[in-house]
Amino acid sequence: MNFTGLIAAVCAVVAGAVCVSKISSNNKAKIKFAENDDDFASLSGWPLLGNLLDIISFGQAKKLSEITVPVWLSPPGMVRRLAIFDPLITRRVLGTNTPNIALLGSRQYAAFLGPSSVFGLAGLEHKRVRGLSAKAVSKSTVRLYFENIKRLSKDTVESMAADSNGSKPIDVNKYFEKFAYDSICAFMVASESANGKILSGLYIEYMRFAAGLTAVVFPHWMDFNDDIKKGIQARAKISEKLKIIISERRQELENGIEFADALSMFIESRDSEGNFLTNDDIVNLFFALQFAGFETTSKQLATMYYQLTHCISQTDLQLLRQEVSQPSALESEQLLSALPTLDAFIKESMRALPVLPAFAHIFLEDITIDGKLIKSGVTVAPYRDRTMFSVENSEIFKLERFLGENAFDKTNAAEYMPFGYGDRMCLGMHLAKMEMKLLIAVTLKSFELEKSGNKVKFTRYPTQFARCK
């Protein structure tokens, strides 16, 4: 069976996403420079929201990422923010000890992500929750979920092939969304267990929750479908089920029953002062991991399918296929992690078209950025991935950038931050990397891919389709 024309779009509107647009060489007047040295320049309002990037215009326009100093952005309908594109300034801001919360931690999102969500915690309380959850999300622990995620990968790819019936176009994104959701459920509790099936069965409720959270980003008068109310109700239903599962697990652990999953690690985790995660903490962590890993992982996988069939060279595709076809390639997480070409593909995909190139933070105290004092309460949006524009021949997709001793992430570590930097680095990054590697490896191992000759324009939403043949 051949997979042909597997294509998808990327870059959905994400809460807290910043404007990605272009400034043409004859359009510099749109930058309004500060009237004094105490402030940064401002850009006029931009009509495009979200991570919208038209790949056709790569060589035709000067991107915002080429601006070397922080600038104020005022995207329509969204809070004014200070955008930072210089990677060195980005690292200093993300690595600061100044208390801050993610934009998703602000009050308007509390009904969905929880009043004590890790997104909204700062200082010692943020450190407490991150520290207590660290073991469960570490690379060494994530290896425990390898077989479960591999099975989900195979089920997803086989389901796509069956539904296409050899020629029917399918929207790959809906399969990847379910895969991302189920992977996090399998991380929390074994997916084959009764509790795993309960969590997986709440997928429709989670989709209502996600729709409501998205609706919060926009003016409430635009919520014609009452998504916010439905989303809050869905969260309550999921929370109720989760709390029952957590309470039962606590009792089972007290009775000496052992489990190898994140839920047990969350429950048993203690720090040096005896602090532990409450039931509400664990519920909020589930929603935080789902929200952070659901949309991003699924959209990045859709992007990878596009890149496999439209961007990658035939030589690189052949190398990738040969590597994952080794008999031992999918036997363990350690062997999977040792595949350099697959690793390079994942990294190049996240460089070329990252789903979330920036993430907004609200600083709770004054902070100095590039020599200027920024008052508390200001939203700051440090870009993590200027590399999608700044490297040589950035519009060309090539794996050699991340292979060998001169791999870009080794020689330019300051510029490459696909999962963020500092104390708000992506909590589930090891799980996300394993999900992406396994699904791509299973696809390449199970099917013969062919490059598509069709010209496809990337769009904000996954409106393009895959054709399995």
Characteristic terms for this protein:
single chain, 469 residues, alpha+beta, Cytochrome p450, 7-stranded mixed β-sheet, 4-stranded mixed β-sheet, 45% helix, disordered N terminus
Question: Can you walk me through this structure?
Answer:
Residues 1-17 form the signal peptide. Keywords: Heme, Iron, Metal-binding, Monooxygenase, Oxidoreductase, Signal. Its cofactor is heme. With 469 residues, the chain is α+β, with helices and mostly antiparallel strands. It has a single domain, classed as Cytochrome p450. The chain has helices at 87-94, 110-113, 123-137, 139-142, 146-164, 172-188, 194-200, 203-217, 227-254, 262-268, 279-310, 314-324, 333-337, 340-352, 387-390, 408-411, 429-446, and strands at residues 2-4, 22-23, 31-32, 41-43, 62-63, 71-73, 81-84, 100-102, 169-170, 361-363, 367-369, 372-374, 379-382, 448-450, 466-468. The strands form 4 sheets. It has a 7-stranded mixed beta sheet with strand order 3-4-6-7-13-10-8. A 4-stranded mixed beta sheet has the order 9-15-1-14. A hairpin with an 8-residue loop joins strand 3 (31-32) and strand 4 (41-43). Helix 3 crosses helix 10 (262-268) and helix 6 packs antiparallel against helix 11. The protein is globular.
How would the blueprint of this fold be written?
Layout lengths: L1 E3 L17 E2 L7 E2 L8 E3 L18 E2 L7 E3 L7 E4 L2 H8 L5 E3 L7 H4 L9 H15 L1 H4 L3 H19 L4 E2 L1 H17 L5 H7 L2 H15 L9 H28 L7 H7 L10 H32 L3 H11 L8 H5 L2 H13 L8 E3 L3 E3 L2 E3 L4 E4 L4 H4 L17 H4 L17 H18 L1 E3 L15 E3 L1
Parallel strand pairs: 1-14, 4-6, 7-13
Antiparallel strand pairs: 1-15, 2-5, 3-4, 6-7, 8-10, 9-15, 10-13, 11-12
Helix pairs in contact: 3-10, 5-6, 5-17, 6-11, 8-9, 9-11, 11-17
